[in-house]
Amino acid sequence: MEGLEENFKLAKKQDSKAQKELYEMFSAKMLLVAHSYTNNIYDAEDILINAFLKCFSRINECREWKSFPFWLRKIVVNDSITFVRKNKNIMYVDVEIADELPEDDEEDILAEINIEEIFSHMPTGYRLIFNLYVFEEKKHQEIAEILNISEGTSKSQFSKAKKWISDYLKEKQNEKKYTDTIKI
């Protein structure tokens, strides 16, 4: 990213112009990260603002300009998790489920369904663990520590999230087949 190194160094000296530049460089991407956890744009915006305030007040903790994007993302993810934990009632229930996605016309269905649409319907607990495991590449043991749950619960919820996505895609696939039948 052009200007990242210079803006990072100036932001460490509390240069407000450089802080604004960093905000403009990363705010859209970090908003998407926060939104993927909260499923609410207004909550995601609040998290984003607080994360940047925290970032700029603690910027000296980040030693290298190259690691700044990852450090900022970690702040956004942690703040998002804290927000979800405080504001949502997440139920964790252990049930044995299958992990397979639908095979018929899977690519067609996936092409028509936006990832955001899937996450907007996914239950909060599933979405939280799915995001941490898939997008943040956390291990179940780490997720358990972050969310203060057992490792088994993390694995179970991840499995349920995959099953939920599978069922959701099957439902969309059936809707598409029904719609295609009506058009004939």
Automatic annotation (TrEMBL):
Pfam families: Sigma70_r2 (PF04542), Sigma70_r4_2 (PF08281). The keyword Transcription applies. InterPro entries: RNA_pol_sigma-70-like, RNA_pol_sigma-70_dom, RNA_pol_sigma70_r2, RNA_pol_sigma70_r4_t2, RNA_pol_sigma_r2, RNA_pol_sigma_r3/r4-like, WH-like_DNA-bd_sf. GO terms for biological process: DNA-templated transcription initiation. Residues 22-88 form the RNA polymerase sigma-70 region domain. GO terms for molecular function: DNA binding; sigma factor activity. It comes from the Bacteria. Residues 114-164 form the RNA polymerase sigma factor 70 region 4 type domain. Keywords: Sigma factor, Transcription, Transcription regulation. NCBIfam families: sigma70-ECF. Belongs to the sigma-70 factor family. ECF subfamily. This is RNA polymerase sigma factor sigV. The gene is sigV_2.
